[in-house]
Amino acid sequence: MKLSKLKLNPDNPQVFGDLEKLKNSIKEFPKMMKLRPLVYDPATGYVLGGNKRLVCLRELEFKEIPDEWVRSADELTEEEKKRFIIADNLLWGEFDWDKLKDEWDIDELENWGLDVPNFDASEDEWQGMPDFDKADESFKIVIHFDDEETREKYAEENKMQFVKTEKRTWSTWFPFRERDDLTSLKYQPEESQENELTDLQKTNYPIYVLSKDRAGGSTTADILIKNNIEFEFVVEEQDFKSYLEAYPKTDIIVLPKNDQGIAYARNFCIEHSKEMGFEYHWQLDDNIKNFQFKDAENKRNTVDPFGMLRHTEEHIDQYMNIGGACFSHGAFAFGFKNDIDYNKMIFCCQLINNSIETRFKKGTAEDVDFSAQLLTDGWCSIIFRTFLINKPKIGTQKGGNENEYKEGGRESRNKQLQKDWPRWFKEYKKNGESRIRPSRIWSSFKQRPILKDE
Question: How far is the C-alpha of 243 from the C-alpha of 67, rounded, in Å?
């Protein structure tokens, strides 16, 4: 059979990796191909089982192969062909979980015997917190100028005052009003205590650890303190005293209101870091168990996260259109082809651009909705696949918003997500628990990072 008649299957979720050993095996033991032939669909020429071997045969410059090295799947139905792809990889392959999550039905995969990781893991324990109504829904006119001189001339002619002036963006209110002084909400240790914090590792952009009812129990804070990395807690006023007692040497920012939910807290961090004059800021969940680096051999090494945080900042600083970036969850760490992926959901440990208009919304799956808004607005997101975080399973840890989460919070938010994005998200029940079906929304965004000097 001519090898040119066989095609790599675009729906194959298998990760190829290093094929040198497989190529040597084919050269040294060709009888293997007879015992385990390539299985293909005669209607399309796509290989259902044996895509890695097809790549090896091409690289070994085979033009024709014995007929006994291939087998037609003409007796299989379309449903059986899909099932065969998964069943074949159960024994012999490693999966691209991102492709499976976006393009396959998870219930079917599990029914076929695949042990699928929990893709809902990023919807953390904040999901059930009470709703937050944004007090300010302002209206905007955005004016772009070709150069700085024209902008200055326009401002002078219109006698404009500005709340904030950055290199590329000036902002104001009409009628003019001063911004709230958010610096007054920050608690800093007394000077005698602060002087003890020597040689702090400081990232370029502020790190906010959003925490609720976990004074003395924030694993994220424990890691940052152990590695002497500067950060700030963001807590509610009702929790302030307990956090002060548990972390007397750590900066603490107190939210203006109690019990307003995670969207409120996340949006506060955006506004606070903008007020401080930063271009980006970090938002970290308070219950990260560890930070890991996945090396070239796919081995996970628990590390001081400072290097990963700084590398991320330096990488993002090269571009002008990155709305946000994050580390990958350890549950999704295997099977990815690339060290970096674009236009995916960002969550848990995220670096957010303060120039975005996107804000976290109440009463929905916040991270999913925020990421969908961000990409729809034309920004690009980046997820670092070799930088990993691990978190405990939802419902296994005290604090956060466990009570609200257990009382139908996830279902109401998933249904709101479906309502807001009916084309892409669908809520369903599995074992009585509300879930969102995997969506192809992320693969529909094609934007890529643009270098600042382009």
Answer: 71
